[in-house]
Amino acid sequence: MSWAPNRFNGWTNGAAAVTATTVVDSTFNNAVITAQWLPPKTVPPINVTFANVNELTGYNAVPTLSGNGYTITPSQGNGYAWVKFRVDFGEGNTISDYDKLTCTIVGDSGDTTYKSIYLAAGESIASGTNITGFATNPLVINTISDWNFGSGTVNLTLTIDKSKTTELTAQELDIIILPNTPSSAIYTITNIQFSQN
After folding, report:
1. DSSP readout, 128-169?
2. Is 32 within the bounds of a domain?
3. Is residue 97 in a domain?
4. Per-residue CA distances from 114 to 13, 80, 157 (Å)
5. Which DSSP symbol is given to 70?
6. CATH number at residue 172
7. How many domains, in total, are found in the chain?
8. pTM of the model
9. Which domain holds residue 145?
């Protein structure tokens, strides 16, 4: 007989979700914070690939197709240049059904050493949005700090923080993988996959 654990799906205070942007004030006096759990569920891995560059939207950055992923050439840096793409998690599924995003990053040129890498998700991420790793940014669902991916090829695993995806219940989301690099840095992201542990 096999056993599958329930899946953590964030915190609530009564019926209200408690997230990184929740204001903690006097109303939290004697609050009861409750962990939310989803029943076991198996979903297939999602391999994200691109048939047309129009599937990628750049903000202060120009995306070009490269292998099964894309290369980003930014005109600004440090959170002000990114490329987003749309992911359909399947009928009845949400991002909370997945545990991690894996990908391969290559630093093609410029300063790509010891940078934070952000994974951001939202129902619609507007052009002009600055993506930073601050805990108060509701779009950022994981941050790897000071990752030294340098000029070589590095396989990354970005764990999906379920405490930050509680309210992301849409089947389709905008996704951004953002190395927080200066405008001189050009990098390529391939082999993008959402999967369970």
Report:
1. TPPP---TT-TTEEEEEEEE--TTSEEEEEEE--GGGSTT--
2. no
3. yes
4. 37, 18, 16
5. E
6. 2.60.120.430
7. 1
8. 0.81
9. 41-195
